Amino acid sequence: xxxxxxxxxxxxxxxxxxxxxxxxxxxxxxxxxxxxxxxxxxxxxxxxxxxxxxxxxxxxxxxxxxxxxxxxxxxxxxxxxxxxxxxxxxxxxxxxxxxxxxxxxxxxxxxxxxxxxxxxxxxxxxxxxxxxxxxxxxxxxxxxxxxxxxxxxxxxxxxxxxxxxxxxxxxxxxxxxxxxxxxxxxxxxxxxxxxxxxxxxxxxxxxxxxxxxxxxxxxxxxxxxxxxxxxxxxxxxxxxxxxxxxxxxxxxxxxxxxxxxxxxxxxxxxxxxxxxxxxxxxxxxxxxxxxxxxxxxxxxxxxxxxxxxxxxxxxxxxxxxxxxxxxxxxxxxxxxxxxxxxxxxxxxxxxxxxxxxxxxxxxxxxxxxxxxxxxxxxxxxxxxxxxxxxxxxxxxxxxxxxxxxxxxxxxxxxxxxxxxxxxxxxxxxxxxxxxxxxxxxxxxxxxxxxxxxxxxxxxxxxxxxxxxxxxxxxxxxxxxxxxxxxxxxxxxxxxxxxxxxxxxxxxxxxxxxxxxxxxxxxxxxxxxxxxxxxxxxxxxxxxxxxxxxxxxxxxxxxxxxxxxxxxxxxxxxxxxxxxxxxxx
Length: 584
What we know:
Layout: E1 3-8, E2 14-19, H1 29-40, E3 49-54, E4 57-64, E5 67-74, H2 79-97, H3 114-125, E6 141-146, E7 150-155, H4 162-187, E8 190-198, H5 202-213, E9 218-222, E10 247-250, E11 253-255, E12 261-263, E13 266-275, H6 284-290, E14 297-301, H7 305-316, E15 320-324, H8 336-347, E16 352-354, E17 359-364, E18 370-374, E19 377-382, E20 384-387, E21 426-428, H9 439-454, E22 469-471, E23 477-481, H10 484-491, E24 496-503, E25 517-524, E26 529-536, H11 540-552, H12 557-562
Parallel strand pairs: 3-6, 8-9, 8-13, 9-10, 13-21, 14-15, 14-20, 15-16
Antiparallel strand pairs: 1-2, 1-5, 3-4, 4-5, 6-7, 11-12, 12-13, 17-18, 18-19, 22-23, 23-26, 24-25, 25-26
Helix pairs in contact: 2-3, 5-9
């Protein structure tokens, strides 16, 4: 089941989606998503259960009350299992969201339902263990799409005799009785591991793999996709061989008062238990994949890096993009020079920034477009509204209070410099700590933790002071080390020296568009140790990595000056700056 969609029947609005990554076959997900959208537009007076032939795949859909559940399957996948799967997720979706379906005004409102869809996929993918009630298939129809213009329907009924149903039921009962008795015996025992990792994102997998290299027993608990949110989780399939010696446990984890972790009724215990559950997120990448045309008009709400990156990408692809921010600058947690310079550059670009603006109401019109009222006026004819105002840690369902793990008011787990929580032998890394929500940070912290716990490296820990960060905005932003404000707070204003430069790089020398380049060094002490490097402009992402190494090694401004500059490059500016000034 490569694609699953749940839509509202009356208007075809997509409510939830789940996409499987893969590395072979005809996986043009955009094409099949567009076909699904066409089917959703033809739901009025359509049969409640249908199959649709499309190339090497089959669409199957089921209409249940106000929703339509659709999946895309390989032709070899049994139709009865596909319809049972759709009945399952449809009923569960109604159980969870029936009262909210008609109030939804934006697509993909229930994307968190993907977690249940993933569980159902695994259940129905195991064809040998499923027995499906034949009543579900008494009114199936086969539909063939011909160039997506002519649709023909033909009925196809599945008829089972009463004797066959009784025999099927008896066999299932016998199988269930045997396996259930075995499961009861198995679940009465607690399974022990040296390392129990909760969360199959980048950080959890990295830590589990590294621990396994040291010869300890490792189990990884994950209820959804492996790989987390960075770039492509499906790329993890390439590394499947590396986690083959880590036992994968599918399901949701929760702590029990006796200190064990319960998953699907089975208890597990780790000599060391790592929490790496990350944060709740919106699948904005999948929204892009499902778009059949460029969005004509978009409103993005937020001033952080996700909002800035999304707004820049959409605007440069041709969408009329509006960015709504509460204050007067974007990236306000970054160095003041970067925040100001990027805001100015974006003001001169295709993104329309609405400063000191907050949404008061959103109205969906009869034509499907949105009218957004703000404290500054009305933005009309909006096709898509994207909220990028932050994410919350996925810690709520872990029952952390049962084992004494402390969290802050938001739900971030409080840890010390060695990733220890307030509970003995329970640790936490990654986004769930609320610090540096970046995939490379979670990976680095996870690996260092494995070395400390299982390779006798008692002082191994991640230094969070010099984390290099890049924002793929337009223009690019790169930063490592302390901001000017942080340096003043740490060393005092008299001990800080600032070097700044602003110019137009040679790349834009002969073009009408003059994209700025801003560079800033922050130095501390008499020897002018470089404690911060901040860049804006083309190539900032590539330049920053090398200078981050220099910063980590404790380089001084004098050592920067002794480096022979490579000409003509933007990077040479960082080793030729003169005229340092004290902060204002």
